[in-house]
Structures are given as structure tokens and as C-alpha cells.
Design goal:
The chain is an all-alpha fold. It is built from 8 helices and 2 strands. A two-stranded antiparallel sheet has the order 1-2. Helix 2 packs parallel to helix 4, helix 3 runs antiparallel to helix 5 and helix 6 runs antiparallel to helix 7.
Length: 214
Amino acid sequence: MRGVPRSTTNLENRAAPMSNEPFFETRRLEALSNTVFGVAMTLLAYDFPKEKLANAAPDWKSIAREYAPHLTALLLSFLVAGLFWFSHQRRLAYAPGVGRGEVLGNLLLLLSIILLPVTTGLYGAYPEAADVVALYGFHLAAIALINLALWWMALAARRDWHLIGGPASVAVIFFLAAATAPFAPHAARTIWTFGFIAPAVAALVERRARGRGA
């Protein structure tokens, strides 16, 4: 190139790819997230009563009365954390590198997952309290909305919007449940059920869409 020193051209050629390079490798986020999600899935197991039951020879009724709330909270925490862990892993596999915004968003998501055993344990202890159901509903909606925002950032570059169906449907369902919880706690619990079914339906639709495009 005439009129341009070779050294300057080389510097420009070297600098150009750096603007497109990811700020952070997802394998580091994956290692951190696996630890956080693993703790969220199992932490409530340590809250099970360790002392002996009141009866000398406990029957099924006394065992259920003592352990049912803890077991319900544990299973619910495991299911919710597993749902978002699966979505999180799919997104990290789709986007092998992330920028600063995605890193901060992922840390915010992990913070919301860390708090999951707290709100789930509270819900397991007081499942009929309207304020507790509302708090838990708001927490689920927050996790789902953060997850949706991260998927949007991952898909924006390639515009593979057909992959956003699962995260979007879960976010909508949990948002509706959160809006319903303060007024109708029992209805909110019913709506939550669809949040666990939606990803499977979205995956089926996505698979059929790929089959038609093939």
C-alpha cells in the first residue's frame, strides 16, 4: 500500500481481530456456575432434622409430618436449579466467548441462584403464606428474566432467534405467576407447573423446525 508505512499497516492488521475477540472464556464461567448450581441443588439436604422424632417408634404419619416440608423444598430447589442449569449450559456451549456485559450478567444470574435455597426453604416451611409465595414467585421471575436477557445477548450477533423460545416461554410463565401470586397464591403454584413443561415443548418445536429446514 503506497503512502502507508509497513509498520503501521502491520499494527492495524494485528489490532483488527482483537476488537472481535471475547473478553472472557466460557469455560471459566462454566467451572464457577457448576459449583454454584451444585450447591443450590443440594444445600437444603443439610437442613433435614437430625434429632430423633418425638415418638419412640415413629410411624409413617409422624415421619411425613416431620420431613415432608424439607423434602418438598429440596425437590423444588433441585428442579428449579436444574431447569436453569440446563439452559445456562446450552447458552455457554452456543457462545464460546463472552464480553464484559455477559460476564456481569452471568454473575448476577449466579447470585440469584445462590439465593434459591433461601427462598425455597422459606416456601417449603410456609407454603400457605401469601407473602412467602409472592416472594418466591418474584425470585423465580427474576432468575428467568436474567436468563432471558443473557440468551438475547448471546443470540443477537448471529440472530438465531429460534433458540430463544424456551427461555422466553419460561420467563413469561414465571412473570405471570409472580404477578398472580400476591392475589391468588394457589393459582401461582399452578402456573409454575407450566414453567417446567415449557422448555420441553420449545425443544420439540425447535427440533421440528430444524427437520423442515433440512
